[in-house]
Amino acid sequence: MGEMVTDPFPYEPPEPPPAPPSPPPNARRPPSRAAIAAAALFVIGGIGGGALGAQAVLSRTPASTPAAITRSTSTSSAAQAQTPTSAAAIYQAAAPGVVTITTEVAGRFGRVGEGTGSGIVLNTNGDILTNAHVVAGANHIQVTFNDGRALPATLVNSNTSADLAVVRVSAAASTLHPLTLGNSDAVLVGDQVYAIGAPFGLPESMTAGIVSGLNRHNAASGLSGLIQTDAPINPGNSGGALLNTQGQVIGINDAIESPIAGNVGVGFAIPVNVVKQMLSSLEGVPNQ
Q1: Are the beta carbons of 169 and 185 closer than 8 angstroms?
Q2: Which of 118, 158, 163, 254 is catalytic?
Q3: CB atoms near residue 257 (< 10 Å)
Q4: What is the DSSP letter of 131?
Q5: Catalytic entry in 133, 184, 205, 230
Q6: CB 287 within 8 A of CB 266
Q7: How far apart are CA 101 and CA 198, in angstroms?
Q8: Measured distance CA(42)–CA(288) in Å, rounded
Q9: Which of 184, 230, 238, 254 is catalytic?
Q10: Nearest CA-CA partner of 242 in 98, 144, 136, 134
Q11: What are the C-alpha distances in Å from 199 to residues 70, 74, 109?
């Protein structure tokens, strides 16, 4: 029994014990039965003590294991709840809610100028949010969806000081895909973000980056409290969506800071919480 408990090696049949030598004439008397019993009790007590010690260790191990499993499960659940959606999935879900806006503006000497920007679908009533400078002075506004539909739009309202505007199209509610507005107050520097718009007239273009700064001021537009991002933003992105990793709108792309009229990694977006505060007036009665 002692060999089975303590021997860690593979079992091998024991060699037969050698024959005991003949006792010398003056051999000592064999131990008494009482001594054998005492020795047996000592061995049994030792084995029993070891078994009890092992049982104590085993009983402690399960007590800590479930706690570890519980913490692991809880952490895993929290991580799963915050697991970011893949960029491809974000694009597939958001692209139908981002539009390209083209405008015609009367220029000097009877010439007609054209402009291109972006916008996001606000609701199933046909309201499209964009920047005020995208539609400023436009005689004609056209909204093109990612499925190729091109619809005329009318200006509902514009706030030039906030550089926000809403235009409206007439379309079946089932064909409109409003984007979810997130919470820009929860945005942190370093957060992954995605910009979708029509840079240089290339519709439904998506770029990726991070939040580079918060509460920024853009001297060109005069706007403050902006989200700064290094996600490439170029002319034509204005009015498009800046999305978080859950596909929620956290900002409206507004401008870039660049000496070359192209992206150099400094873009600005209007926080969506600012937009939320102005939606009721932007979706109201057109300016008279």
Answers
A1: no
A2: 163
A3: 16
A4: -
A5: 133
A6: no
A7: 9
A8: 105
A9: 238
A10: 98
A11: 48, 43, 28
Q: What count of other Cβ atoms lies within 10 Å of the Cβ of residue 41?
A: 11
pTM of the model: 0.69
Cβ neighbourhood burial of 118 (10 Å; 0-12, 13-18, 19+) = buried
- Report phi then psi at 18, rounded to 5: -65, 155
In whole angstroms, how far apart are CA 176 and each of 35, 135, 144, 160, 169? Answer: 96, 21, 12, 26, 10
* Bridge partners (DSSP) listed for residue 124: none
Which pLDDT tens digit goes with each residue over 53-88?
333 332 333 333 333 333 333 333 333 345 667 999
The structure tokens 């379309």 sit at 171
Quickly count helices (H) and strands (E) in the chain: 5, 12
31 or 241, which is more confident? 241
3-50 pLDDT tens trace: 443 333 333 444 555 555 555 555 455 555 544 444 443 333 333 333
Listed as own residue / partner, the contacts of 78-86 with beta carbons closer than 8 Å and 24 or more positions apart are 84/192, 84/245, 84/246, 85/245, 85/246, 85/247
Q: How many CB atoms lie within 10 A of CB 120?
A: 27
**Is the CB of residue 166 less than 8 Å from the CB of residue 128?**
yes
Whole-angstrom Cα distance, residue 95 to residue 240?
Answer: 11
Burial 259-274 (b: 16+ CB within 10 A, else e): eeeebeebbbbbbbbb
Backbone angles phi, psi at 193, to 5 degrees: -140, 160
Task: Quote the CA–CA distance of 102 and 153 in Å, as a whole number.
Answer: 10
Does the active-site annotation cover 238? yes
